[in-house]
Write a structure and sequence with these properties.
399 residues, alpha+beta, Butyryl-Coa Dehydrogenase, subunit A, domain 1, Butyryl-CoA Dehydrogenase, subunit A, domain 2, 3-stranded mixed beta sheet, 51% helix, flavoprotein
Length: 399
Amino acid sequence: MSNADSTKGGYSPQALEIAAKVEAFVRDVVTPYEADTRRDHHGNPLDSLIDELKEKARAAGVLTPHILPDGGHLTQRETALVLRKSGLSILGPLAVNTTAPDEGNMYLLGKVGSPELKERFLNPLVQGKCRSAFFMTEPDGGAGSDPSMMKTTCKMDGNHWVINGKKRFITGADGASVGIIMAKSDDGACMFLVDLPDPAIQITRVPNTIDTGMPGGHAEITIDNLRVPADQMLGESGEGFKYAQIRLSPARLSHCMRWHGAAVRANEIATDYANRRQAFGKTLIDHEGVGFMLADNLMDLKTAELMIDWCADVLDTGALGTAESSMAKVTVSEALSRVADRCVQVLGGTGVTEDTMVEHFYREIRAFRIYDGPTEVHKWSLAKKIKRDWKAQQESTAA
């Protein structure tokens, strides 16, 4: 752990110790697995690889490190520190069980799940015994950046809900054991917990994507007359969007934490290269065109870190809203994308090969600007808030 992490406030000694252990584990144990060939034909890591890493994390005492043995949880600022360390390798969050969608699903179930649902669905996730998937996004014409367009339906039939519809870009669905499905009743959006696999939930396609860091990829799904017991609904009929916000705002922030770690590692590789590589009679770092890019990286990384910590502090107060999470998601994803892009540029031809992890970091971080809402949607949402706030101010002044 760097001296900066050990001196800045907001972290308990316990959190600093956990973060140090996670960083050591990811750097020493996980990174050698980055060359492991246990991948599917899309390039995503196989569960056999992830399970092996989880066992090593369990033995090292760093599995699900942000959730404490007594069931307590680190503060969000402390979680940010730990998740940044887990993100130093693409495989790190998978190994220590801080990855999406599992981390967000655990957060949601921990907040709103009944004791029975926690016992059945949450505990195996926390223990790293299975993976999960969150079924919200739909094909064209359905829910995506605008969840109100949801077309997947759910109707009561006796003591069961019957769900029908199609979903798209469902991360990790192939191989998951726990599913959280969003569907629309006459009352509005609903959310259900289901066991996977289920014959009524069919994976119709797993497209090749720019990112290849998630087991199971991003599947397209058909749900055909899925019967779910009524007691597996989260909350009441029509409350699904409320629960989605409980999950999505912190989940966006968790993405920022993990990808910050990836960008830090990419910058480390680029910095090492620039200080070793010679061109035109001096090292690359001594050429302003290269040195300035690395200086810009430091500024973008610090800006992203400060935004993450600010948003984490707001979340710890219970006041995190859509605006705050949108600002963090846009600021951090755009800053980290610039960092990754510069790292590729610093490495030149090497940067577009698989000879270092920078090319892989670049692809994964680039995808981050799209999922959990593209930059433009978040800016649009913020612009609407600016207009609402302005109108409210004008009305208050007039009164």
